[in-house]
Specification:
There is one protein chain. By secondary structure, this protein is α+β, with helices and mostly antiparallel strands. About 25% of the residues lie in helices and about 35% in strands.
């Protein structure tokens, strides 16, 4: 699998501290090798728009689409709970 950022994803990611950015890159490696990796807890977030959600850590989530062999990273933000 491959990945690409949406238009605003890189800026959103850079708004987080370096520790979160490092965790994100680790989680992205897991996603690229196996979407079922336990630490990702990847799940369908919005069935109608085919948007998935995955964990960076307990408080941060990233959202993505799957198109063919590419993950399109849409957004990264604090979990609302």
């Amino acid at each position: 699998m491959k990945y690409r950022f949406s238009e605003n994803f890189a800026a959103d990611l850079e708004s987080f501290p370096e520790t979160i950015q490092t965790k994100f890159w680790k989680q992205l490696k897991f996603l690229l090798s196996d979407i079922r990796h336990p630490s990702l807890r990847a799940k369908k977030y919005d069935e109608s728009d085919d948007i998935w959600q995955s964990r960076v850590d307990k408080n941060i989530r990233f959202y993505f689409l799957i198109e063919s062999d590419t993950y399109i990273l849409l957004n990264i933000k604090k979990h609302p709970k």
